[in-house]
Amino acid sequence: MTRLARDHWQRVIAGLDPEVDYEQISRIVAQHEFPWDSQQALSFALFRTYAVPSIGGLLHQTGEFTNATQKRHDDTALLLETVADRGLESEEGRAGVRRMNQMHGRYDISNDDMRYVLSTFVVSSVRWIERYGWRRGTDAERRAAVRYHQRLGRLMGIADLPGSYAEFADLMDTYERETYVFDARCRAVADSTLDLFVTFYPRPLRPVMRRFSIALLDDHVREAFGYDHPPRWLDALAHGSLRARGRLVRFLPTRREPALLQHTHRIRSYPGGFMIEQLGTFAAAGEAVSEGRSAAP
């Protein structure tokens, strides 16, 4: 089989229109050009949302992210990945969005919180690639990410969506400045998530990987959770090692087949496969069920 040129996918993206082909561009970025980076960026994006008391507090209240951390991790990852992989307008994609809307509809979640979480998906991925990626992201890739998440947001019934990457970034940064404050419930959710994260590595490395992960957090995120600032050497090692990885990846073969998180060892809850309609949490007997916000057609 002929080896793909290192700039193969960049040339494919250059021939696409991010205003129309935003799903295809986003899939290329997440599954071919930056699969590992995209997975890490999503994990850290979700992690930072726990520092908002109304979000972290609700997750703590449900007990899902402290008592069933692995399954909640898997369900969230599989829902988002399936929607992106199969397409927002596909039958599977719509089923995934419907499941998310049903779960969110059980709780009184503000539009501001929903907009903020959506903004972290856009901004965290772009910033991660800028810091650690094997190449810089392009304007077309940023615009595609914006258009993709605008469409996802409309399907989830989120109002007043930002119109550009700059607006998404401003929303995320402003919301964090205005809402971040230490809350023991948020810290408990963060601790449970870190406890899960380190199990993805060999046992002798787990204490190191926990400190490594905390070192990668932005200062204000770490402070909101009440984590100590890492020593200067650890901070430099954590960020430096990821930048070094990016430089190394430049020399690896171009990925021909898509890389999906569902095929990795991090997804453990469904060894026999999964059905998207059965992912997530469900209302208890007698509990009213809602489709959530009024979603766009």
Describe this structure in words.
By secondary structure, this protein is mainly α. The chain has one domain. Helices cover 62% and strands 0% of the residues. α2 packs across α3.
In short:
The protein is mainly alpha-helical. The protein is built from 14 helices and no strands. Helix content is 62%, strand content 0%.
> What is the straight-line distance between the termini?
42 Å
Please trace the helix and strand order, writing H or E for each element.
HHHHHHHHHHHHHH
The amount of beta strand, in percent, is under 5%
The structural class is mainly alpha
Number of helices: 14
Task: Report the mean per-residue pLDDT as an integer.
Answer: 94
Let me know the largest β-sheet: none
Which segments are poorly predicted (pLDDT under 50) over 5 or more consecutive residues?
Answer: none
Give me the Rg, rounded.
19 Å
Q: Give the helix level as a range of percent.
A: 55-70%
Instruction: Give the tally of structural domains.
Output: 1
Q: How many DSSP-defined strands?
A: 0
Shape: globular
Secondary structure layout:
Blueprint: H1 8-14, H2 22-33, H3 35-49, H4 53-62, H5 64-67, H6 69-86, H7 91-104, H8 111-132, H9 139-155, H10 165-179, H11 184-198, H12 206-216, H13 219-225, H14 232-249
